[in-house]
Design brief:
Radius of gyration: 19 Å
Distance between the termini: 31 Å
Shape: globular
Strand content: 15-25%
Helix content: 40-55%
Structural class: alpha/beta
Number of helices: 14
Order of helices and strands: HEHHEHEHEEEHEHEHEHEHHHHEH
Length: 340
Amino acid sequence: MKQTKLFGLLLSAVLLLGLAACGETGANSAGSSGAASSQAAEPAAYSIAALKGPTAMGLVKLMNDAESGEELANDYTFSLAASPDEVSPKLIQGELDMACVPANLAAVLYQKTEGEIVTLAVNTLGVLYIVEKGNAVQSLDDLKGMTIVSAGKGASPEQALRYLLDKNGESLDGDVIVDWKSEHSESVAALASGAATVALLPQPFVTVAQTKVEGLRVALDLNEEWNKLADDGSGLVTGVIVARKDVVEENPGAVKAFLQEYAASVDWANENVSEAAELIGSYGIVDAAVAEKALPYCNIVCITGGEMKEKLSGYLAALLEQNLQSVGGALPEDAFYFGA
């Protein structure tokens, strides 16, 4: 097997772009969602990139198996990157076969390449949380009149919060004011200094903040809030794994076999948190101690087929309402969803 390639890069840049993203939810069986048994599929060699953060956490078992020479359906070469900007050009130019990217970026790439990108699975649901030093926030209603700190203006944090407030009859910048920071670490610092008492943070920054701010609690899980307010079967989707269309068409059986192994890796990470955290730390994705505390709240999944399409298409439609260009100007066509 080819040796896994890893690049030690900054986690914060990934999370700021909305990627990043960890799992109370176990991986869905790939076999039940359009990724059935590969049976007579010919093995393939795939170069796969992931972003440092939650979207890479679900891959660690498969990464380790590939590096250790375990018998797998395909030949995998993995690499880690700090930013989607490093991944997108390589995917388009054919240097990568698959990549874990933010959900909205997958739609943008689909439009940019005129349909040459296919989404294989949702790999991370919502990782965003409202945290508070106090007990004033028990629901979205309680945010009215508040100023909160957050990073991610124009990215997933803003888009998700704006959508949820709108669904709840409130408005961002009107009923709720956000003091936008350039990095999530700045929001943590504001909480630690007492300059702010409420923040919107992704995992694993929530876990980091709780080690620095005594009494900081999770007030709202935006993934849960989305599920309460959305009535279309959609989900708050942080990350997906995509492939080039020609890669899928050349050997769909091998792609399905990969999804089975990916789903198994996700299940293992969710069921073996301590061991997974050690692997996550060894690959430099997140510090092992932080990973062990954060992993149960990172919503790492492997959702494929029809359920993937339902959750992702609804999420992209919600983004389209907020910002046309956030999904590349139009919603992807059915061919965007593998196995749906």
